[in-house]
Amino acid sequence: MTQPPKDFAADKEGLHPRNRHRDRYDFPQLIGTSPELGPFVAVNAYGDASIDFANPDAVKALNRALLKHFYGIQNWDIPAGYLAPPIPGRADYVHYLADLLASANEGVAVKGKSIRVLDVGVGANCIYPIVGHREYGWRFVGTDADPVAVRMAKQIVASNSGISGAVDIRLQLSSADIFSGVVKPAEVFDLTMCNPPFHGSAAEAEAGTRRKEQNLGTAKGPKPVPTFGGQSNELWYPGGEATFLWRMAEDSALMRNRCFWFTTLVSKKETLPGLYKSLKKLGATEVRTIGMSQGHKVSRLVAWTFLDEAQQQEWRTKRWTPTGSATAPPAV
């Protein structure tokens, strides 16, 4: 039995205070909710109950148990080889987005179905819409360029009454576009979110996976297997994270008055200067960088808006107050 990666199971220091997964996994409780997890749980060399995080089936069973126990998701699956993300870290992004909205609303939480969030690269797992809707009642549009991922995400939404009707999954037909082609002409979003592919090629992604296997002591053969799976579009993009986020920044400027906060995770600190430069050139009125950590893993969330103070106030009045409209964007 291998030791679980510190950034996934054993070390949860740094998680958001509202994150349901701050404590160590209660495997007896999770098995009680989802018995299929049982065969994968054993006491490891450190005397702790755990699973083999190098086993994709074990990771998938753990995710099913977590989603069922904490979020009421009864039916969840992903195709073989697709990304089965570490749910605690994914939940953290959602909670920091809730804080971001509140910070622009005099500290008051913004919840409910009038809040619309666009998840770029929703994946077959559909994790962000699940957590975001179950925690805050937000409605989601999830987009992806992979037809298989889109079909699977649609199936997850349709088969779970707790999220059906609150999540719309759409296929992005152009790999060169981020928002264009999937956002309808009059659509308005309070937030966008994205966990972009950060490798620049398949070879780079494979090398990264091999380094991670060596660090964890989980290498089992000449060809590395991503710990949590992942298809090419989930792991790499031509030009890497920097190019993807440059395209996102450019595309966001085309709908500058139809979204309050554009956001993305940024894995590499080297990506930040170029992103900041692009956003300044495009006329972003405010850019924020929020540090995120889970044990020894450090990431950051970058958020930007093109709305000035008057437009932000109008947005709050129209969309975030009980009598406000859920569709009207601020005046240009």
Verbal overview:
- The chain contains eleven helices and nine strands.
- The chain has 332 residues and is α/β, with parallel strands linked by helices.
- It has one domain (79-319): 3-Layer(aba) Sandwich (Rossmann fold), CATH 3.40.50.150.
- The strands form two sheets. It has a seven-stranded mixed beta sheet, sandwiched between helices. It has a two-stranded antiparallel sheet with strand order 1-2.
- α9 runs parallel beside α10 (272-282).
- This is Ribosomal RNA large subunit methyltransferase F.
- It is found in: Cytoplasm.
- InterPro entries: METTL16/RlmF, rRNA_lsu_MeTfrase_F, SAM-dependent_MTases_sf.
Give the C-alpha Rg.
Answer: 20 Å
| CATH fold-level topology | Rossmann fold
Structural class, from secondary structure content?
Answer: alpha/beta
Q: Spatial order of the strands in the main sheet?
A: 5-4-3-6-7-9-8
Instruction: Please indicate the count of domains.
Output: 1
User: From the coordinates shown, what is the CATH architecture?
Assistant: 3-Layer(aba) Sandwich
Q: What is the mean predicted local confidence, pLDDT? A: 85
Question: Outline, from the CA principal axes?
Answer: globular
Main sheet summary: 7 strands, mixed
Enzyme class: transferase
Region (Disordered): 1-24, 203-232
EC number: 2.1.1.181
Pfam family, one: Methyltransf_10
